[in-house]
Amino acid sequence: MKTVAVHNLGCKVNSYELDVIEQELTASGYTLVPFDTVADVYVINTCTVTNIADRKSRQMIHRARKLNPSAVVVALGCYVETSADKVSTDASIDIAIGNNRKKELVAILDNYFRDHSSHPLTFYDDSIKVDSREKTSYEEMKLKAAPEHTRAFIKIQDGCNQFCSYCLIPYARGRIRSRQQADIMEEIIGLAANGVKEVVLTGIHISSYGLDRGGSELISLLKKVHAVKGIERIRLGSLEPRIVTRENAAAFASMPKLCPHFHLSLQSGCAETLKRMNRHYSPEEYMEGVNALREVYEAPAITTDVIVGFPGESEEEFQESMDFCRNVDFYEMHVFKYSVRKGTAAEKLGDKLTDAKKSARSDLLIDMTCKQSKAYREYFIGREIDVLFEECEEYDGQLYICGYTDRYVKCALKVDSKAEGESLSGEILRCKGSAFLNDELMMVEAVK
Length: 448
What we know:
The protein is of the alpha/beta class. The chain has three domains: 3-124, Rossmann fold; 151-378, tm_1862 like domain (pyruvate-formate lyase- activating enzyme, Alpha-Beta Horseshoe), CATH 3.80.30.20; 384-446, CATH 2.40.50. The chain contains 14 helices and 18 strands. A six-stranded parallel sheet has the order 2-1-3-4-5-6, sandwiched between helices. The chain starts with a strand and ends with a strand.
């Protein structure tokens, strides 16, 4: 049988889709092998969120061709959608598949091997439309078992209607399409029966879940998932800040399985910068959401994304954003230096900053988030916490079973053998934080 190597770039949605693709490839008789080995087929699930993502996508495609010049190289996803001109002339690619036809990969490969011996690139356009008059259906995919065993990503929607001025994703993923609740529940119930304890509800813009059917359905879906026997934890992917009203925060808190770990996308703490970004909230509205969560949870983990060096960002605007981030006091910030994306509204904006200026601002925010994150983790020293353990890791010659709290703080429990550690994988244990192995890993002791 043929061997296949896969590589994923980008978001949790891509991770979910590639998990399903791997499942279908193995079910069809392909043997999965590591990406850095010789394979008959290479599948690269690409990303286009930044220029760096584009470059990494091309690098992995070209690496695959070098690993085996006679292999079939398949490029999937967002880079294919937004860079069709480059993809169509890239000699390293044999098959290019857009975002809404990923589930057809096995059938496409079967046809390819049957019909081609010497061939040009075959391009499978998924016909995603960003025009509101065009409707693309949700591409149904279903995961039967989680590669991580204890945790599974669950894709609940696709597409985005926000059209932030810097972002290509609506052009790569199309308008919002919500998955049917019955299909989501069938998948989660099946995963729970196979031992999955934690699910992460993800999508391109999950805050819009249900809006294409007439109204928000996120809370109603959460209540159904919360009732699934065997599921102990539920996490949410990135949320639009405006969805965190006091009413919704109270609804979140009423579901004990929902982890108090919320990623609220910020991008800038400056009102004027947010306007140029075409973000649909103010810093004040964002802070209202943060406060709503902190009113119903003790020390919720609040994480975010921040872009520095957006066109026109003055020193005063950057300082305003810095001050806002300091006041929010995030658990973690993911800091990105702005890069121009061809075809976006921001491409036409003047007053672009130098790379040196963007790097200097990025360094300041990264230093801030390192300090804030350390302080947040230190809060749990001496406190009792529940840890879902996952896998064994070794540090300085000592073996530990490692896992995460509901607030996504990584923890390590000493074990005497790998067998002892593996016996705890998938278990949630009450522990107490004791010390730190490093800046990001907290040692714990089991509470007797």
